[in-house]
Design a protein that fits this description.
Layout: H1 7-16, H2 23-31, E1 35-38, H3 42-48, E2 55-56, H4 62-66, E3 84-87, H5 93-103, E4 110-111, H6 115-121
Parallel strand pairs: 1-2, 1-3, 3-4
């Protein structure tokens, strides 16, 4: 039987595998060709705004859209050599998602420390 782990332990393990980015560093990388994947809900994006150039993909289908062998891949993100920067509301689920993408072979996947909340607080670009 597998030993039970807490979500805090899973989060710590996931983050230990990532080179997490500040919002400003994520924006700079996006300007240089990396892809920001916004996993926030449609309601959150409508209410809070979106990041210019980010691709909105719900967390529930992210792995199928990324995996080029799934039959449901999104060609904009289905390249395992592409730098994918995952963004959620606060930077928690994005860490787990980026670690899972690494398990799928996306060796450059990472996330934004603090999520969209930190992005907006830092005054980075947001579109209505």
């Amino acid at each position: 039987m597998t030993e039970r782990r807490t979500i805090g332990e899973l989060l710590e393990a996931a983050r230990g595998r990532l080179d997490r980015l500040t919002p400003a560093a994520a924006w700079a990388e996006a300007q240089a060709g990396s892809i920001i994947v916004d996993t926030r809900s449609e309601d959150a994006r409508r209410r809070e705004g979106t990041i210019p150039g980010a691709i909105a993909i719900p967390l529930s289908v992210l792995y199928w859209r990324a995996d080029p062998t799934s039959g449901f891949e999104d060609p904009r993100i289905a390249d395992p050599d592409r730098r994918l920067i995952i963004l959620c509301a606060h930077g928690f689920s994005s860490s787990l998602a980026a670690a899972t993408l690494r398990d799928l072979g996306f060796h450059r996947a990472t996330d934004v420390d603090g999520g969209f909340e930190a992005w907006a607080e830092d005054g980075l670009p947001v579109e209505a």
